Amino acid sequence: MKLGPGLRPLWIAGRFLTRFPFPDPGAIDPTELGQAVPWYPWIGLLLGLVISAVALVLGPAVLNGPPGVVAALVLALWVWSTGGLHLDGLADTADAWVGGLGSRERTLAIMKDPSSGPAGVSAVVLVLIAKFAALEALIGAGDAWLLLWAPLIARAQLPLLLLSTPYARPQGMAADPARTAPPVASRLAILLAAGAVGLALGWTGLVLLSAAGGLYWLVRRTLMARLGGFTGDTAGALVELTEALVLLLPALGCEAGFSG
Q1: How many CB atoms lie within 10 A of CB 15?
Q2: Which of 151, 152, 163, 178 is most open to solvent, judged by the fewest CB atoms within 10 Å of its CB?
Q3: For residue 168, which phi and psi values (nearest 5 degrees)?
C-alpha cells in the first residue's frame, strides 16, 4: 500500500504510540519523526475514543457489567493498546531517580538498563492501581465518556516537553523528534487539544488542564534539576502520571457533581 506523503506523519505517530493497525510507512527519515509530533495529541484522542467506547458498551450504559470488572477489562485494553510503552518509561525513570540520586550520569545509566528494580515495579503497580480505582469510580457513576480526554491531555504534554526542554542525551529514542519537531504545528496541536478539552468539558476541562499544567511544571523542574533535560523514559513517565491525575480528579469528585 502506497501512502500519501501528507499522511505519513500520522501513520508514524500512530505506530509509535499505539499497537493499532496503522499502515506501515516503510523507511522513516529522522525529520519525519519530528513531523509526527503534532499528531501525538490526536493519537491520544483516538485511544481515548476506543477505551471510552468499550467502557460505555460494557458498563451501565449498555451491558451493565460490574464496574470493577469493566474497569479491569478497559485498563487491560489500555495497556495493550500502547504496548506498555509509557509504563516502561515510568519504571525506568523511577528506578533511575532512586538509584541515581545525586548523580546525573548514574541516573542516565540506570535508565538504559532494560531490567526493572523495586522502585520501577512499585511505580507501575501504584499508577495502575490509581487508574483502576478511577476507572471503576467513573464507570460506576456513568461518566465513562470522560475517558475520552485523558489520553489526549497526556499526549499533548509530549510536544510541549519537546519544544520547551532540551534533550538530555546525545542520542536516544526521542532525540530526533526533539530536534526536528515543527514548532508552529506542534504549538497549534497543543492549543487545539486544550481548546477541545475546554469546549467539551467546560469548567471541568479547565480544572483538568490546570492540573496537567501544574504536573508538567513540577516534572520539568525536577528533570532540569537532575538531568538538565528530558529523555524518552521521562517523557513516558510524564504521560502515565498525567493520565492517572486527570482520571483521579473527576473520579474523586464525581459524587459531588464535579464531572457533570
Answers
A1: 18
A2: 163
A3: -85, -10
Q: Cα angle at 57 between 82 and 142, to 5 degrees?
A: 95
| Cα gap 8→27, rounded to integer Å | 11
Distance of CA 81 to the CA centre of its chain: 12
pLDDT at 253: 82
Q: What are phi and psi of 3, to 5 degrees?
A: -95, 140
**Residue 1 in this model has a pLDDT that exceeds 90:** no
Distance, CA of 107 to CA of 94 (rounded, Å): 10
Helix axes 118-140, 232-253, angle to 10 degrees: 30
DSSP-derived 3-state class of residue 31: helix
DSSP 167: B
pLDDT at 24 over 50: yes
Helix (H, G, I), strand (E, B) or coil at 230: strand
What pLDDT, in 10s, does the model give residues 44-70? 999 999 999 999 999 988 999 999 999
Q: What is the spatial distance between Cα 57 and Cα 26, in angstroms, rounded to a whole number? A: 36
Listed residue (61, 2, 9, 47) closest to 31, CA to CA: 9
Contact 86, 239 (CB under 8 A): yes
Cα angle 225, 230, 232 (rounded to 5 degrees) comes to 150
pLDDT digits (tens, 9 = 90+) for 96-141: 999 999 999 999 999 999 889 999 999 999 999 999 999 999 999 9
Q: Which of 31, 144, 24 is nearest to 77 (CA)?
A: 144
- Cα separation of 82 and 99, whole Å? 27
Residue for grid cell 528530558: 230
- pTM for the whole structure: 0.94
Q: Residues with Cβ < 8 Å from 41, sequence gap 6 or more?
A: 152, 155, 156, 159, 189, 190, 192, 193
